[in-house]
Amino acid sequence: MAGRVVTIDGPSGAGKSTVSRRLAARLGFRYLDTGALYRAVAWSLLASGRHLDDPADVAAALTALRLAVEPGPDEFVVTVDGRPVGLEVRTPEVSQAASRVSTQAEVRGFLLGFQRRCADISDVVAEGRDMGTVVFPAAGLKFWLDAAPEERARRRHRELIERGETVTYEAVLAATRERDDRDRARELAPLRPARDMIVIDATAMSVAEVVEDMASRAGQTWPELKKGLSSVN
Ligand code: C5P
């Protein structure tokens, strides 16, 4: 871990992606979306017709998977067979599948090196579920970003509708709760804040307010960033 690392963990729909991307731009760090890795694995399992819960099928799929994480100008890009993953990994079906495969030790272990290597390349804002606990336990700054389930479902519903999916708010709320429950109950990297994380409840906060709070804490952690911070955004 040569670079400076900010970790942002928390449940789905709390605004982690938007906040992480903006914070990375503000600090001049690269954004790492680790959910995209789990989604890429899930998507390739679904596409090859393998069983998501069968460890032998999953192991075979991981061996066949040509996955890479490449540094783009602002963010790390996840590729499969040399092509960046796109909206095909953002469907509700892949969300559920990603949550299911992420319970498996084989998958988590397989993805660990991909994530850690990013911090050897540059400073990183890493977003996920176990960034501050498992992947980057020595990160300089760790956040837990949360919001009420109704608010998170409302945001995710709006996103899906904007993308042209036909889905009701109630279905999104139920799926959000189902994913939360599974992510919380799993033995490996369960979804909960660690003691050394700064907890931010974004239910009643704007994205700009959350980013401002995080950026000012980054300025306290790394005083050398302060000069750049006041002139950007
Ligand atoms: O963040 P995103 O919704 O894209 O993540 C998809 C799924 O991948 C999550 O529901 C979670 O189960 C899993 N995940 C994980 N650990 C991470 C990132 C994502 O288990 N670091």
What does the model show?
A hairpin with a 4-residue loop joins β3 and β4 (76-80). With 233 residues, this protein is an alpha/beta fold. It has one domain (5-215): 3-Layer(aba) Sandwich (Rossmann fold), CATH 3.40.50. It has helices spanning 16-27, 35-47, 55-64, 92-101, 105-121, 131-135, 149-162, 169-185, 207-221, 226-231; strands at 5-9, 30-33, 67-71, 76-80, 83-84, 124-128, 141-146, 198-201. The strands form two sheets. It has a five-stranded parallel sheet with strand order 2-6-1-7-8, sandwiched between helices. A three-stranded antiparallel sheet has the order 3-4-5, with helices on one face. It contains ten helices and eight strands. α7 crosses α8 (169-185). It is 51% helix and 15% strand. The mean pLDDT is 92. The structure holds cytidine-5'-monophosphate. Cytidine-5'-monophosphate (C5P) is lined by residues 12, 34-35, 38-39, 95, 98-99, 102, 128-130, 179, 183.
Name the descriptors:
single chain; 233 residues; alpha/beta; Rossmann fold; five-stranded parallel β-sheet; binds cytidine-5'-monophosphate
